[in-house]
Amino acid sequence: MKESNQTETVLREIISHFQVDTDIVPYGEGHINDTYLADSTPYKYILQKINHHIFQDPDRLMENIVAVTDYLRKVIEKEGGDPDRETLTVIKTKDGKNLYRSETGDYYRMYIFVDRTKVYQMVENQDQFYHAAKAFGKFQKQLSDFDAGKLVETIPQFHNTCSRFEQLKAAIQENKAGRIDEVLPEIEFALAHENEISVIVDALEKQEIPLRVTHNDTKLNNVLFDEDSGEAICVIDLDTVMPGSLLYDYGDSIRFGASSGAEDEQDLSKIYCDLNLFETFTKGFLEELSDSITPKEVELLPFSAKLMTYECGIRFLADYLNGDTYFKVHYPGQNLDRCRTQFKLVADMEEKMTQMKQIVKKYYNR
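The structure corresponding to this sequence follows.
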């Protein structure tokens, strides 16, 4: 009880630096930032302590978020929408800053809480996945004219598959955890795909596809769904918003949402790319983006699903070889299980690539 009272006292002191005065309680299921709900009138608020060990420049991170959300508010208003519900609203500190730095060196930010919404951790039905796809597609469409070059990389080289591949090779060479003999088939699979790792990076460098604002963490639980309509209304968790390719966002959505099983499923016979879910997401995504996506991006959509899945797999494999130093594990070998599910998905996507391309073609109406 004493520790709880101390925490409450600290949080109330933090809140005093923002223009609200209210009670506060822990909230949500996030794994990176500590999140709290402040219940006030006329608004509720979200207070978050930014994990500055992962996001090492919180000031620049918040500059990204404010630039993007300010731009989105103008677009949403022009379209006749409700910016208080359709994008995040940053609450400034009393001295006009985007965040507050405490005496202990911790960083806090505050948003208006988007009320009457739900968050889902896993895809429960196709309709839900369809609306999530529309939300991410709309996010891309509304930001299509935003100069992505104005944003900083909050995590440098985050979706640079070439960089991730070099990290894997280093992990193989160093074999820090002495596990290399356990993963020889996985290493062989990873190295066999080296000729594909630079496809998206090269397309960006050659300006064959545009540099865009990308979310970079397009999981279902980063979308708010309206309680009444069931539609997705707001994309949240903008910490990894930075310059990149929309192929990252599309591909990672498919990797996570169209998989038939859990990320750490040990029975690989249960793991495959569900083409019904693939089609559902593709339909919603392209319905929003058909006027602003380029033909080259469309061409690479199916490949991006495979590449983002492969990239995630080699990250799990590298972390397993390094002794599980990055991804949190709940049992020995979990990162290896995660790697194997991703590689199984990659292999399945390779077998289904013709069908995936046909599905994309079906919904690209230009």
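The two ends are 62 Å apart (CA to CA).
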